[in-house]
Amino acid sequence: SFFIPIITPQYFLSESCQKELMQYMAKVKELQEPGLILPIMYIQPTDAVKKSAVKLLEDVYSYQWIDCTQLRFVERGSHEYRLRVNQVAAQLMEVNSRLIQRMEDAADAPLADEVESGREDFYLESLDELNDLMPQFNQMVIELAGRLERISDVMNWGTGQLEKAKARGEGVKGAIAISVQVAQKLEPLSVEFENNAMECVSQVEAIDRKIRPVIKRAKQCEEDDPASKEMIVALGKMVESTRMAKGNTDAFIRVIGENANLSRALYEPSKRIEHGAVLYAGSCATVIGWENLLD
Which of 33-37, 59-63, 69-73, 193-197 has the highest mean pLDDT? Predict the structure, then answer.
């Protein structure tokens, strides 16, 4: 998935934003595809930020970034606005096409140890490993959905408490006190959810490395091989359940993003949850992309 950080002075003061950026930078270094990170410079960092985050700023500037510092002063829908948005879209399409070609080439190419040993592939072993990994991912989806539900319950509880406080005429101080209570309830949930989301990313990456060549082989022999047919059916169900999970997660990301700026106390747990949700949605998108291999 792509990572498009919106660079402002506040961005480099946020621990969760820095953590997210460094995680994606490590990933693109592993993939050797810097185009997956496309920073958008929205507000120039202040001198204080430049001094405190020198290395991170240098890393950001090393990518192909887009200067949008003047974009906030023009009207949406104007020629300049559309031009900048089109520039971002064009770069994303170019990188996406390059990645698709790389994945197709990788799916057609035998593994290095297979070439050295003279064998075509390890299809059965890969199939067996995938049969173990896919149920683990399905279980992770269930666990993440449960954590999102508990987070939503806390947020709904907080909304109810805010409405009661407003009815009692407690004012802003009452709302801040409730926000602190909500943040305290969200803190452990946010840590668990973010950690689970990062684990989910690792699981999907492990499956993705094996599944593309396996699907290609399985499609060729599913009529004669019950194991291949079973894997194709299971994968189809997995894609459908993941599509639903991604839809729910995308909607949740919009809500939690608004929640972060409601109160200082809510900012860190909300951003942690948002980070986890973005990672999880990206993993879901990878799984949904496997559908193209099934056609």
Answer: 193-197
Burial 159-180 (b: 16+ CB within 10 A, else e): eebbeebeeeeeeeebbeebbe
Within 8 A by CB and 6+ apart from 19, the residues are 275
- Of 30 and 171, more confident: 171
Q: How far is the C-alpha of 160 from the C-alpha of 170, rounded, in Å?
A: 14
Cβ neighbours, 10 Å, residue 109: 11
Which range (105-119, 129-143, 202-216) has the least confidence? 105-119
Residue corresponding to tokens 């985050």: 53
Q: Is 220 helix (H, G, I), strand (E, B) or coil?
A: helix
Strands lying side by side in the sheet with 40-41: 6-7, 40-41, 66-67
Pairing verdict, β 66-67 and 40-41: parallel
| Cα separation, 241 vs 284, whole angstroms | 10
- Distance, CA of 143 to CA of 196 (rounded, Å): 8
Q: What is the mean pLDDT of residues 134-156?
A: 87
Beta strand 66-67 pairing with 6-7: unpaired
E strand map for 85-217 = none
134 closest CA partner among 219, 196, 197, 200: 200
